[in-house]
Amino acid sequence: MRAIQITEFGGPETLVVRDLPDPQPGEGEQVMDVLAAGINYADTHQTENSYLAQQTLPMIPGGEVVVRDADGRRRLGLLAAGGYAQKIAADPRRLFEIPDAVDDGQALTTLVQGATAWHLLRTSTHLQAGETVVVHAGAGGVGTLAIQLAKRWGAGRVIATASSEEKRALTLELGADIAIDSRVDDLKGALREANDGRGVDVVLEMTGGSVFDQSLAALAPLGRLAVFGMAGRTPPSPIDAGKLMARSTAVIGFWLVHIVQQPARLAEAVTDLMQLIAGGELRPVVGATYDLDHASDAHRALLDRSSVGKLVLDPQA
Q1: Above 80 in pLDDT, residue 315?
Q2: How far, CA to CA in Å, does 113 sit from each of 14, 145, 286?
Q3: Of all residues in the chain, what percent carry a pLDDT higher than 70?
Q4: Is residue 41 predicted with pLDDT exceeding 90?
Q5: Given this structure, which CATH class describes domain 2-109+285-314?
Q6: Fold of 113-257
Q7: In the chain, where are the structural domains located?
Q8: Cβ-count burial 84-100 (b if 16+ within 10 Å, e if not)
Q9: How large a percentage of the chain has pLDDT more than 90?
Q10: What stretch of H or E contains 265?
């Protein structure tokens, strides 16, 4: 089979296509064709070995796949690795069946990014009706779904940030009430101005550095900032517990691994999202599709923040 195999850690240039033996199935597993694989920010950390979990070489990256099982049914699932390949070995009983009304790219939006958006709002920040929600990177895979879910679950105002006029227009189409330029110097001031001069209640943050710091400063009393990534590769300033107490604010970390380790909680999110998509109640934004030979371009698009929506890899192309 053809697959991306990494033999050294680094940037997109390490994504090299190789001819490798087909995977060998373990107990209860089948070898299945990969119809599509999801491409995520976490994959860029995986290739750098800069993620929360340490990686080992050689490695086939990618943990999010749509496959066809022995009965011809399309299934969706998360793996530890191996998704950037034409075949994988997996237990079909651990995968989600995909409704006919949901295509491969749409299905992929429900896993890493969809379940993250779902649990950030429901589990981490406990969004309450009428609250103001800030969604950073609003045109990205998590952001496009988080905007829609926040509105669906009663947010009083959704403020999206994005780096281009085109991306900001997309966030407004998806239901954001206000879209602001993520590159402004005074982000704290811009967020408060977008909320009529008041602090905001919930922030979903995955950039790090100054974006984190200014977002935390923009919180209203009892506000919550959920951090689920560090795309800018720059850590925020140390958190002052006294300042959190003084304003009754909270910083919440989120790593999807802990949801995956509780299969019922992952299934709750994925099943709900799949039903909403199938019923036309949720609009998944599927961006560009890449073949194996251009997987490195997908990683570059994520890193330079030029991508929109969910990026998909087609290993069979």
Answers
A1: yes
A2: 24, 8, 12
A3: 100
A4: no
A5: alpha beta
A6: Rossmann fold (3.40.50)
A7: 2-109+285-314, 113-257
A8: bbebbebebeebbebee
A9: 93
A10: helix 263-278
